[in-house]
Amino acid sequence: MALTRITQAGAGVARNNAFIQQSAANIAARISKAQQVKNAKADAIVKRGQAYTDDFYKLYGEQTRSGTEAWNAGAGELVGKLASEQEEMYAQAHGANGTPELRNAWRLRQIRDRGIVSNIGSWAALANDNATAMQENQSAHEQNTDLNRMTRGNDTDKYSFSQNMQNDQFSNYNFNIDDSGNVILNAQNVNKDGIVVNAQSRNLSADVVNNKSGNEWYSQIKEEDLLKNKLNKNWSDKNNGYNTLFQKQVDIDKVYKNGKWKTITKEVYDPEEVKSSLLTNYKGRLDTEVLGPGFEKTWDQLWRNGYLKDDNGEELMGSEISWKDFKKIKSMSAQTFVDTYGDVDNDPSTDAEADKQYLQDQMMSSARTGLANYYSGNMVPAEDQITQVITEPGSKGSGGYSDKDKLKFKSDERYYNNFRKDSPTIIKTYAIDENSDAGQKINRSKAVAKEMNRNLPTNKRKGEFFTGAQAKAILSKNQQDARAHAFKDNGIYFIVESKTANRKKDEPLFTYQVSGSPMRPEEVLTGNAEDLTFYMSSMVGIDDEAQNYLKTQKTATPPKK
Q1: Which of 151, 287, 381, 420 has the most CB atoms less than 10 A away?
Q2: Residue 300 has pLDDT above 60, yes or no
Q3: Looking at the structure, do residues 412 and 540 belong to the same domain, yes or no?
Q4: Residues 292, 359: one domain?
């Protein structure tokens, strides 16, 4: 009996142990299965994270590569680092302990990093374009041409960085991301001893944004920027070009030869009148060009090709300053301006702000003059153009002139004779020699201007003669830029008053315009009465043919008192 009980008890223990073992096995199996499920989920998360990073790498692969391999290596390291961080953030955000905040942070990081990769590619494209531009600029300098030349005032830091890249002056390129998500490129040149001998940095993201805003990395003169392509059309446009603003004068010459009269009709062009009109009546139109986009390219070409000069060949004020610096001057503080340019008007009594405004005004005036020089010198025909030639038989007549010609000459006779009579008196009364001072010369020029105004033919009285000194005062008083005309104090100028075209607020109602070529100081101050007669007669419009005829005619002797 006892044995039976003992045996039964042992069997119970065995059964219990077996149950415990089975339960443990079941638990282990369930845990294993749960772990498998968990592992599968984790693996799936990892795979999804890797899929996202694969897309990220694909995006990077689609970007432009730099021509500098060390740069590409540095960019690749950054992309690899960003991809690893993205995988880790995805796993955390979508794992068992993931939260909406973590998932949002991952999405934001993904957006940020895609922008970073895009900026890297865009900057690489810029760098490649810069390499081409620098080569083109070098070639333009070697060939002394405007095409592909970089303008003055480009960012020297950018140029230096690009130049060092092209010349393999950097051995290491490290890419970092700042707190604002900008890509910061740190370029270094490390020698064999591990010492950094050259280092420069660029904010790649800022460079890309700046370029997309329309600010070129470098301002470079391209085909469409050349003066002949940009300015010529401003002149020749048949609807609104400058050429529509000017009337051609018609001149008729009659010549007798071999028993026939030849009448030649010509269209006469006056470049000086065109230039003067542009700088006065059409100043506003020139300002539109000057203040328009890309004028720094026009400015540099005007400077290089000699258009930023006055009538004496002297460089206009500000021509050596880049147009980019001109635009910077506007936003400069008065102190910065003084530190940079000093006292530009050499007048200690004026403050820095006034000096700053003076330089701006001078450079605007120089820009207008440069454009006016180009248009009047290049677009106005250099020679008169013959429009009609008529040949008809006839007799030469007395003195080589027909009765009709003589009648025409007769209309100028009294004016010419007054000049012949008064020239000796002017020369004697206002004698000029090497010892004559400025006052004596001014008095002579005033007397000559007065004489011409007294003897200006009725059909030509559209204006008045003034000395250069008088003309400067008149224009300045009328708020016009007298400097643009480079007046000589002892020269004589014909000034025409007209209503201001396209008048803007605060502009004068009337504008004074210089018409025709001036009488030069050396002509005004001549000691030869015959020459002075010729110069004055020509200025009032008595042509050479009429003077040659009238010179042969006797003047009436005034009756004795």
Answers
A1: 151
A2: yes
A3: yes
A4: yes
